[in-house]
Amino acid sequence: MSERYITLAEVRDLLTAENEQRELLSVQRAAMEHARAVSPITVEQAEAIVREVSEIPEITAPVAAKIADILPQYPEDIRAILSKERISLDAAKTESVIEIVAKYL
C-alpha cells in the first residue's frame, strides 16, 4: 500500500461518492461537510495546482497539497504555509505560486 497526500477537493469527492454507497460515520460526514465548505475548486484544478507548484524545487508534495487546499492569494499566506517546513522562497517564486493559484480561482 502506498501513501500520497491528497487535497480537500479529493477528500470531498471521495467522501461524497462513499456517502452515496453507504451511510458515513459522523466524523466522516463532518469531514465531508468541511471539505465542501472550504474547497471551491474541482479535483482537476487541485491536481493542476499541485502539479504546477511542485515544479518549484523547494516545494514538497505535502506543501503543494496544502497550497491547493488553502489557495493563498498573498505573499504572507505563502510564507505562513512554508514557515512550518522552514522553507523560504524568493519574491519571484512566491509571485509564481500566487499566479498559479490565481489561474484556478
Topology:
Blueprint: H1 8-21, H2 26-38, H3 43-53, H4 61-70, H5 75-83, H6 91-103
Helix pairs in contact: 1-2, 3-4
Walkthrough of the structure:
This protein is mainly alpha-helical. The protein is 67% helix and 0% strand. Helix 1 crosses helix 2.
The helix tally amounts to 6
Distance between the termini: 33 Å
Unreliable residue stretches: none
Q: What level of helicity do the residues show?
A: 55-70%
Give the overall silhouette: elongated
Count of structural domains: 2
Structural class: mainly alpha
CATH class of the largest domain: Mainly Alpha
Strand fraction: under 5%
Radius of gyration: 15 Å
The CATH superfamily of the largest domain appears as HRDC domain
Q: Which architecture name of the largest domain does CATH use? A: Orthogonal Bundle
